Amino acid sequence: VWEACYRRILTRAKTELDASLFLFEIFYIEEDVDAPRPLDVDAYNESIHRLAEEFGARLIPTNAAFDDAVAARPGALWTTQDGVHPNAEGHTLMALEFLNQAEW
Fold this sequence. Notes:
This protein has 4 helices and 2 strands. The chain is mostly helical.
């Protein structure tokens, strides 16, 4: 259901807008990067990868970027307490990853 809804949004964006599409992976941060995640980000990210390929969108690998960041600095420095929503540092990381993928 989630992938079908996302596909409808992307189809409409592709047909109604003259814009490049960028799809961001989702992430969930635990302090221990090897700990099981209560949210199955892999399944969602597999859908995002398929949709990026299907729509010719650029993929922003934010899940990997956050995994690398947490390996260097504690997860609490990147997100709010829920591990899902980025704080200012997390948004900066996402912006830098976007700029890198956009070849800016």
